[in-house]
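for ur thesis appendix - Tubulin-like protein CetZ. copy paste whatever u need, i formatted it the way the template wanted (i think)
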Amino acid sequence: MKLAMIGFGQAGGKIVDKFLEYDEATQSGIVRSAVAVNTAKADLLGLERIPEENRVLIGQARVKGHGVGADNELGAEIAEEDIDEVQGAIDNIPVHEIDAFMIVAGLGGGTGSGGSPVLAKHLKRIYTEPVYGLGVLPGGDEGGIYTLNAARSFQTFVREVDNLLVFDNDAWRKSGESMEGGYEQINDEIVRRFGVLFGAGEVGSGDEVAESVVDSSEIINTLSGGGVSTVGYAAETVEEQDSGGLLSRFKGDDDGLDDSGMDTANTTNRITSLVRKAALGRLTLPCEIDGAERALLVMSGPSNHLNRKGIERGRKWLEEQTGSMEVRGGDYPVRENNVAASILLSGVHNVPRIKELQQVAIEAQDNIDDIRQQSEENLEELVEDDEDELDPLF
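the 3d part is after this line
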């Protein structure tokens, strides 16, 4: 699937930069064009792979290149005011060569949180291609203002895009890990999971051909209908034989081998095991998978470690677990040292994390209002003289 990726804000820019690195390493051809938008000049300068001409600094008249300080209402206002500058970079995208737009943003800050829904609304008004969002939720330890920002942005963003894919930092940060190191690891996880998914159907490294091709239309159909999506991923390594070929952990007895010497029954069982691990393990947004409206299974790896029977069995298992009749599946052969299952669950509803986020945000909003009121009272008490003998200047 070929995407025009737009990183909005600091987190969004870094993730799109990482996608370009992944593209370069795997030759998957996912990112047809990349743009970064920010109110902070330093964040744009820190990017490594997004072309300089595609780095758009907005809000200079109001914040002088210093960012919006986690004020997502200001971020939204600036995005509205400077949308023509963003459109100027988007005009350079060869839209006839892409399958969809993808807006990537951290939802807890100010610029991406406020600006990404504004951009989504703008793109949908102009283009016929789908507009997807990839939103990153802040960790619970990042503070009440970031939780409040994320809850408000999530509520708005999901209504403006054709589908919102979500990654929850809370589910991935390791205890005791530094914030910078944690985000670096998280960005790797984001790109690995979504890279396998969106790489399906594109020409990867090597010349292997899929048995059951997953093309961009399968992904678009799975994401159709809107709502929220999450991605599961599981992988097993592949070892080399002395002969120079590949020997997977899937290999078993000498009976039931295919033309490449693989144990087909064991391969099938291992594929279905990976599918279960991907669906029931750590999702990008933890949720109950039953009730998901649509699903897509992509198996990637060396072609002699993939078989149609295993993929079909995994697809049927997903049908049973989700209760959905819209479950698609296929393979994505690549010359790598692992076999991976990537599962897209679209239209998920049973998401405790979102309910928790909304509740914490409501409490934070009430607390912020109380703090502001108390602050005004404290200031009034400080500056007013007891006898009311001083007159203000105006």
